[in-house]
Design a protein that fits this description.
Strands 19-20-18-17-21-22-23 form a 7-stranded parallel β-sheet, with helices on both faces. The protein contains 13 helices and 23 strands.
């Protein structure tokens, strides 16, 4: 196993696979480089001398420029490299060929067919509040139904408390309504009880109309101010919903029906080398089968956005992607915040020094397929293939947005680790084996073996088999532990 890697022939840095020590020599491109400092795993070593302003190249692209003089063998990190990004940019459409030669298989997973023709990978009972005032009620109802049924007959019984649904204006109010609507319509739910208060801004009757055409047998409503005993009435409805949902059974479904969200968090220097490229290979394969993947966290596209823009199938999609990027930049500016204040302290500790470096690694999750649609926050998937979705980088907000769009699963790569999960199975893929071994209760799949000798073909085949198992009912760590939450994007004032 190599102790360091040069990712692209054009790179002028290498990445340490394991800690490298001051004074040791590494051989790169027929020459030797002596390390001038200890370099942690995931971090960069200079292969040439840099003067202030010189570009530093990784992934074959500039990830910033030298702040100060950097000698051959120096440790390259946030202290001596600075982003090239500033201000707003003008974009030009330069489309590229995104055709891929990937064979079509006849793979299936075992899912649940819904009345409207959609497919779910789980059959759960969800209790959703229209407003945060009834969070205690929905939690108590979920606890009572789990105790009464022993949790048998359905995949899970879950309440999803949140803080919103009242005292909101404009986009915030609509964001709340859209996410809650999308949850009610999500095929992973075999039955839903919507619990309202009665005097909230998100009025239950108006929200019911907002759902549009829905299965009235499986989505029910209760307004707590209109019943004498909300617990007794809620349990009565839940027992009826349980009797219906518990009769559902899995059946073979083509892989083309699967929709996955692509997300990363707690990234490190291995993210763009192991786990994110693995998701890219999987995403391309799934799309070749007729399936769908969704990439979000727009601020972590900054610096790599032109790659996505040039993969748009049409000029219209290019314009939508430009709007996606500039709309988020305008959001930062409107709030008097710097656009490029990224990466996080954890990212820097893991070896990511600039936003370009983070974005070039982040966008690898969506492979090389063409962009087929661009979704705004709260929109639901209507087009198969690669979709781009407007949402921030925050892990739970972005993951909730992916699930809300209709993704059956969220595939979440991480180099630092995190235990959370959103309202669909949240698969944690580690970028390195140390994390996988240290946090077996958090991490579901290890991509770190890619720098330990395993081929991408072998790793991607194992990952495909694992995802089919999860889609067919195998529980992820977040599901086993009951770590299930939602977070709704908020941008404005609270009354």
């Amino acid at each position: 196993m190599s102790r360091y890697i040069k990712i692209n022939p054009a790179d002028n840095v290498v990445v340490a696979i394991e800690p490298l020590c001051k004074g040791e020599s590494i051989d790169v491109d027929g020459g030797s480089v002596v390390l001038l400092q200890d370099v942690p795993a995931g971090h960069k070593v200079a292969l040439r001398q840099f003067m202030p302003g010189d570009n530093i190249i990784k992934y074959g692209s500039p990830i910033g420029h030298a702040r100060t003089e950097i000698a051959v063998g120096d440790w390259v990190n946030e202290s001596n490299i600075k982003t090239n990004l500033e201000g707003l940019l003008e974009y030009t459409y330069n489309p590229i060929d995104t055709s891929l030669d990937i064979p079509v298989s006849n793979l299936t997973f075992d899912g649940y067919r819904r009345k409207n023709g959609d497919v779910g990978v789980r059959n759960e009972i969800w209790i959703i509040p229209t407003v945060g005032c009834v969070n205690g009620v929905v939690n108590a109802l979920a606890d009572a139904l789990r105790a009464e049924t022993g949790g048998k007959g359905v995949d899970a019984i879950v309440a999803f408390p949140h803080n919103y649904g009242c005292s909101q204006l404009g986009d915030d109010h609509e964001n709340t309504r859209k996410v809650l609507r999308d949850m009610c319509m999500h095929p992973n739910a075999g039955a839903v009880l919507v619990v309202g208060l009665g005097c909230e801004n998100n009025q239950p009757d108006a929200f019911r109309e907002f759902l549009g055409d829905y299965d009235t047998q499986r989505v029910r409503f209760m307004v707590t101010q209109k019943v004498q005993d909300e617990h007794e009435e809620g349990m009565k409805i839940l027992r009826e919903l349980y009797a219906i949902a518990s009769q559902d059974t899995r059946q073979a479904v083509p892989l083309s029906q699967l929709r996955v969200g692509l997300k990363c968090g707690g990234s490190d220097g291995f993210s763009g080398i192991t786990a994110n490229p693995l998701l890219g290979v999987f995403s391309d394969y799934l799309i070749a089968q007729g399936g769908t993947s969704v990439l979000t966290e727009v601020p972590e596209m900054f610096g790599a956005e032109t790659i996505l823009m040039n993969r748009c199938d049409t000029m219209e999609l290019f314009d939508k992607t430009v709007h996606l990027i500039n709309d988020f930049k305008a959001y930062f500016i409107a709030n008097n915040q710097p656009i490029y204040e990224n990466p996080s302290p954890g990212n820097k500790a893991g070896g990511i020094s600039t936003l370009e470096e983070k974005s070039l690694g982040c966008t690898q999750k969506c492979g090389k397929s063409g962009v087929k649609d661009v979704l705004m926050y709260g929109d639901r998937i209507t087009t198969r293939g690669l979709n781009l979705l407007s949402a921030p980088g925050n892990d739970l907000v972005a993951s909730t947005a992916l699930a809300s769009a209709g993704c059956h699963l969220v595939l979440f790569t991480t180099g630092r680790g995190t235990p959370f999960g959103t309202f669909v199975p949240t698969v944690k893929v580690s970028t390195n084996s140390l994390l996988y071994n240290n946090k077996p209760g958090w991490i579901d799949f290890n991509a770190g073996t890619l720098v330990e000798g395993e081929s991408m073909e072998s790793l991607s085949n194992r990952f495909l088999s694992y995802i089919i198992e999860v889609a067919s009912g195998r529980c992820t760590n977040n599901e086993q532990k009951g770590y299930r939450e939602i977070a709704i994007f908020k941008t404005g004032v609270t009354l």
